[in-house]
Amino acid sequence: MKIAILGGTGPEGSGLGLRWALAGHQVVIGSRQMEKGQQVAAELQAQAPAAAANLSGMDNLSALEGADVAVLSVPYSGQERTLAGLQEALAGKLLLTIVVPLGEKAARVWRPPSGLAAAEEAARQLGEGARVVAAFQNIAAHHLADPEHVIDCDVLICGDDKADKQVVIELCAAAGMRGVDAGLLQNASVVEGLTAVLIGINIRHKIKHAGLRITGI
To answer: Which of these, 136, 6, 140, lies nearest to 81 by C-alpha position?
Structure first.
């Protein structure tokens, strides 16, 4: 697939992009500024020459051209602004959001004033027919850029369309993780909140990689 990572210059977006490129997907690192997207893509190419042909960098709008999947990887504060400029280009595309809303105290669960999950807000903003799936909210980003590192964490996936969630399950596998269907998009509010819980666990136990495993499957 061709995967456009919107705001993909941060550690989580670029780390996932590197893993997907190594798995054979065509990955475009998007940014508000084309130069920044190209710079990060070049850094990833240098880090993993085996994936270099599958990596490129562009501005967010250009990255979406011909993409099969779009990945929203921006801070929550930039979500509405980013989507506002891309609504037409995202029409009919699967949007995988990894956005997490965090408050001033990151270890305390905080929800947007709307009462919705960030993923639900994205779907509402994109309007009728939006294909939004939420995943990867609970993954420690600093390990993603090391393809040799085994991510000891399941990925909880929330969305309203089973086929779209299956695509994301396959992307989880391509990145070296197990994806678990966690229900409808409204459940993303709980999954997003778990990120704050994990941050608190990391702080209290002086670690960096607390994660979640679903047993019994």
So the answer is: 6
